[in-house]
Amino acid sequence: MVRDNLMHGLSVEMSNGSDPYSTSPAFKIGNGQIGAVINSVELAHNTVAIEAAGNSGGGLGSQIDYTDTKTLSGFNIHDNVAPGPFQINHSSGSNVTKGYGGNYELAYAFVTDACPATFPNDAGLDIDFTGVALRAVSGGTGFTFSPSLASYLVTVDGQESATTGSTSTGFTLSAGLSAGDAITVRDLAHCNWTFKGNLLGTSLPGSANDNAPYPDGTILASANNNLSCGRGTDSCILDGASFTSLFANWQARSGGDYTITSGFYKNSATDAGTRPATGKDPGADLATLAQIVQGVRGATYYPALSITSTALSGGTVGAAYNGLLQASAGASPYKAWWLETDPTKCGGNCGSLPAGIVIGRSGTVNGPFLLLNVQRAVGACGSAGTVACSTFTLKQTLVAGDLQVGQVVTISNLENGTGSQANDATFNGTCTIRVLTGSSKFSCEQTGTGADTLASHSPNSWWTGPYNSGTTYATGEQVVYGLVGYSSLQSGNKSHQPDTSPTFWQVYALPANNAPGAVASFAPMTAGTFTFWVGARDGAFQLARGAITLVVVTQGAHFVDLNWDASLGADSYNIYRGSFAGGPYTKQNGFAIMPTGWTDTGLLSGTIYYYVATAQNAGGESGYSNEAAVAVP
Predict the structure, then answer these.
(1) Which residues are registered as beta bridge partners of 76?
(2) Which end of the chain has fewer CB atoms at under 10 Å, N or C?
């Protein structure tokens, strides 16, 4: 029985901050434990504010069905709150339960897992008293059981099995059994399981699919059943804001207020009559929970959490920047960070991030962020012809700030491999973001690397894991032995296993940032002195907030003189500038230019600017002139 818990940002938050898990279920029920030590399961009145979930594991939980569950006598999941479903884990290749009708969804699997079980006999005494086959049994064998059942389902190793000649006390099994197979008869008329009163959300970050249908206290009353949610006949799956708007302040990162404010769902728990006044809603009794844990989050049991950073190192517009927010140890070394925007939590003014500054979940500011995958195609940035466009996806989630079109990014630490990774090192360098296709996915032109096309793949990069005997490495792969880095260059070793004697390895220097993989770092885009508030949360849900100062300066006083031929009939001119060939362009002059020349100032080193001019008179403004490109050294 697991009741009245508030769970927040599970697997991802307790990781190293680089999102190593694609799923984050609150509960994972495995048949390895059920039956051996657990006969019934109840999950009730839990609030789960997860940060991520995947198709193989929902936000509320998942059930892993590797074998038949013979002795489960009760399964009760009610009045929980989560922005994700309860799922059946059926990874490809696993011997997992296909439930009633050969389907995977929760309602079908509950039938094969939690309806009362009885075990058959056969004339040849080939089955023991727990339903396990003692030896191979051919198909077409007849079985009997007692007491008689009006409605039942036969499973073999947890999956529905075809039968013929079924009566209330026996059946003929169509397929044969192998020694060790488990055959079970499930009484469909007296299933002791419940799934009701749960408030589940979908179409939210990480909420995965809805995994419908759900059991509702009857035997598969509808093939598309989403019933028994909150008010009995309302959908269990509430889409996006329809879910989050039910609560005072639903947040997946910063410890929101999960009190239900919706009058429709207030006091609607299926067991409201037996609950205290503060616990009649679906989800945990937050008031009682706060009383129970009072003092646990403070210095009494854990070191107090506090933000120790007050200022980040200075940055320069157009130059790659790396920063890291710091906090005291707290309850664990793992922190989840966020940008505080609630003025009541930051003295009335939370400030704001300057353009081009982003913060990762681990407190990393602008980089280095690990790259999840990379690829290159021709023209994918909207360019015509032969420009090589590289697309990068970050591994770590950005929790604050936005990447910007026109932002300078530096890519480093990619190493050449084989196949689609043969030219990975050509991704290294500096480029300008041209296209954004998500909060952590961007594309930019890399004109210096040619127009080679590389399929999407995980990057080949510095490898800093421990050496494992017997592991196969690619020739030339970068490895770390102990605390020293080496390159495995022994092509004569057919398996390319690094020799445990480093004498034969070529020593290399680790990247300056000691990054374990290919990384991206982003440049600030706006100069000035900025103050903004951040928050951190530790493993005991302690929260801390603090103001951070960041100073960003310009690179220098670079300028360019522009001149052009006079246009017949023109009264004045305008100058437009862009970051990419062909535009888009932005007007640079505040007043009409009368002569045929103009100076553009405040330009950045190492940047290419693209200029066009227009002429204007009383009749209007002309189209763009031809484009002139200027490279600032």
Answers:
(1) 42, 194
(2) C
